[in-house]
Design a protein that fits this description.
seven-stranded antiparallel β-sheet; globular; about 35% strand; single chain; alpha+beta
């Protein structure tokens, strides 16, 4: 698998930036090659992408979501194998740092060649820059979801969470990592390591 890590400073408040990132169905507006994202329930999305002339479809599951701090995910089915985490850090009242770490397994000759040439890194950089332009060009987010999803409630299989279901509120909050998550967890029930 290939790990790509990128960070960008966005001129918008933390809450606005986080809320916009939770609007997964808006991703085609700023993510290169993303043709469609359908939110299936609070935890799962179905993606349709086209990169280097190759179409792929896959499902992702949110493993961990802590409002205004992080969202981590992994694929649970389809043509792509990946996991990732995006973190948010308020720098002041009007600036936010967005850090994205993505771990993707390239498939086929074209994707392996693209990886060797650094295309995943350039694509992630471009996506973050387009996200920055998108959110800075608006008065606010197009929406927002502020629910909490915990790793222990993730199953890695479709149908793990019912539509709109949010993990049990009685559980204690896990220790929160710093602004950058460090290595991605190899076990989906682990918290990102700092």
């Amino acid at each position: 698998m290939s790990v790509v890590q990128e960070t960008i400073k966005v001129e918008a408040p933390l809450r606005t930036v986080y809320d916009q990132w939770t609007q997964f169905e808006d991703f085609p507006r700023f993510m290169d090659g993303v043709e469609e994202v359908k939110q299936l329930d609070a935890r799962r999305c179905h993606w349709r992408i086209r990169l280097a002339g190759v179409s792929r479809e896959f499902d992702t599951e949110i493993v961990d979501q802590l409002p205004d701090e992080r969202i981590s995910w992994r694929t649970v089915g389809g043509d792509v194998q990946q996991k990732g985490v995006v973190t948010f850090q308020g720098l002041d009242a009007t600036h936010t740092r967005v850090s994205l770490a993505l771990d993707v397994a390239p498939r086929g000759v074209v994707e392996r060649a693209g990886e060797a040439l650094g295309f995943p890194k350039h694509r992630v950089q471009g996506d973050l820059e387009r996200f920055k332009d998108f959110i800075e060009g608006r008065d606010g987010a197009t929406g927002g979801w502020r629910g909490r999803l915990r790793p222990a409630d993730s199953s890695g299989t479709p149908g793990a969470a019912a539509a709109g279901e949010v993990a049990g509120a009685a559980r204690p909050e896990p220790e929160r990592p710093g602004p950058y998550p460090g290595p991605l967890p190899s076990n989906p029930d682990e918290e990102p390591r700092v």
